[in-house]
Write a structure and sequence with these properties.
This protein is of the alpha+beta class and about 160 residues long. It has two domains: about 80 residues, no CATH class; about 80 residues, DNA polymerase, domain 1 (Orthogonal Bundle), CATH 1.10.150.120. Strands 4-3-5 form a three-stranded antiparallel β-sheet. A two-stranded parallel sheet has the order 1-2. Helix 1 links the parallel strand 1 and strand 2. Helix 5 packs across helix 6 and helix 5 runs parallel beside helix 7.
Length: about 160
C-alpha cells in the first residue's frame, strides 16, 4: 500500500502529522510506503481539493484527507475506503460501478464510492440532479459521470426497494 501525505513547507506541523501516520500504521499492523508530496502554492492546494480521491470519513463525516492535518484527527475515528469496503457496506456500490463501467483508471473511485455511499445514506431515493450535485466535488478524468450516476441510482433503487 502507498500513502501520500501532502504538506506545505510553511506548515510547522507536517512532521508531527507524518509521525502520527506512522504511529497509526504501526498500531494497526498495516505495512505501507509513505511518501511526502510537497504542495508549494495555495492554488495547488485548492486544485487538489476538487479531486475527491483522498476522501475519508472522520467521525462519520466525509472530509478531504489532503486538506486535514493528521493532528486534527487525533482521537477521531478515521475510515478509509479500505476500511469501509472491508465492512461490506459498499459492496453493492462496488459491484454496480463495475457492472456499469463506472470506473476506469481508479484514481477517483475511492472518493466516488465514499461520496455515493453518503448520498444514499442520506437519501436512498436521490434523483439524478441530487446525485450529480453531490458528486460535483469529485473529479473523474476518464469516464465522465453518466455511468457513475447510473450506478448510484441503481443502488439507491435497490436499497430503497424502489423500481426505476
Amino acid at each position: 500500500m502507498k500513502i501520500e501525505v501532502l504538506y506545505s513547507p510553511e506548515c510547522p506541523h507536517y512532521v508531527a502529522a507524518l509521525q502520527l501516520v506512522h504511529e497509526i500504521l504501526a498500531e494497526t499492523g498495516i505495512t505501507a510506503q509513505v511518501e511526502l508530496m510537497r504542495v508549494e502554492t495555495e492554488e495547488e492546494a485548492r486544485r487538489l481539493e476538487f479531486i475527491g480521491s483522498p476522501t475519508v470519513r472522520v467521525d462519520g463525516v466525509l472530509v478531504r484527507g489532503c486538506l486535514m492535518l493528521a493532528v486534527q484527527a487525533d482521537g477521531c475515528r478515521v475510515d478509509t475506503i479500505e476500511g469501509v469496503a472491508g465492512t461490506g457496506e459498499i459492496f453493492d456500490l462496488q459491484q454496480a460501478f463495475a457492472e456499469a463501467n463506472a470506473l476506469q483508471c481508479g484514481f477517483c473511485t475511492p472518493g466516488m464510492l465514499l461520496t455515493a455511499h453518503e448520498i444514499l445514506r442520506l437519501n436512498p431515493r436521490a434523483d439524478e440532479a441530487d446525485i450529480r450535485n453531490a458528486l460535483s466535488g469529485n473529479y473523474c478524468r476518464c469516464t465522465g459521470y453518466h455511468a457513475i450516476v447510473e450506478a448510484v441510482r441503481k443502488v439507491g433503487a435497490a436499497r430503497s426497494g424502489a423500481t426505476r
